[in-house]
Specification:
Layout lengths: L5 H17 L4 H13 L1 H6 L3 H24 L5 H25 L3 H23 L12 H17 L6 H33 L2
Length: 199
């Protein structure tokens, strides 16, 4: 859904990416840095530092965007880089959801959202293995999922100490679950239709 705005966003991302290029920081290093940053979300949630938690997830997610920009601008896009990026993305989302559960998200909702997040990525990988272009297919890609997670934490910050705290934390994740479910169906249908057209 946010893919249509990617060109405008990339203009700003590229400016920062050029700085990393000048100091010769490799894309895979940025990917791993994003993963390391994401790990800190769990202890921050445990000690209930919600504002730093929000900042850490923003920074970690930004690293995920930045590594791709640096790889593209340096003509250093490699198959292993794509594998590492996808692998780290899955671990980072695990830490994000764990941090939400720690601060009060019902466990079952966290597990469902995590499972659907993995399924959306898995179905995309299945399509790409069969030569299909899967980018932009589905209403909720990684960017939309991260925005909903950030919205959940932002509402938790606003409603901290209020009786509506858990509700504020939960609503964006319920939306995430619904959109992820729709995305899985959209991608499966897209793969089905595309593969049938080839025969």
């Amino acid at each position: 859904m946010l893919t249509r705005f990617r060109k405008q966003i990339n203009l700003y991302i590229d400016r920062i990416a050029y700085i990393f290029l000048k100091v010769n920081i490799k894309p895979n290093t940025i990917t791993l840095l994003g993963l390391v940053i994401s790990v800190t979300s769990v202890p921050l949630a445990y000690f209930n530092y919600l504002i730093p938690l929000l900042f850490i997830i923003v920074l970690s997610a930004f690293m995920d965007v930045l590594d791709g920009a640096v790889a593209r601008l340096s003509a250093n896009v490699t198959p292993f880089g794509g594998v590492l990026d996808s692998f780290c993305d899955r671990i980072e989302e695990l830490f994000y959801i764990m941090s939400l559960i720690i601060i009060g998200l019902p466990v079952h909702l966290g597990l469902i959202s995590l499972a659907l997040s993995y399924l959306t990525s898995y179905v995309r990988a299945l399509g790409e293995l069969r030569g299909l272009k899967m980018e932009g297919i589905g209403i909720a890609e990684r960017a939309e999922r991260i925005l909903l997670i950030l919205t959940s934490i932002l509402l938790a910050i606003i409603l901290q100490g209020h009786e509506l705290f858990v509700l504020g934390l939960t609503i964006p994740i319920i939306i995430l679950i619904l959109l992820s479910f729709v995305t899985v169906l959209q991608r499966i249908y897209y793969i089905y239709r595309s593969l049938n057209q080839k025969h």
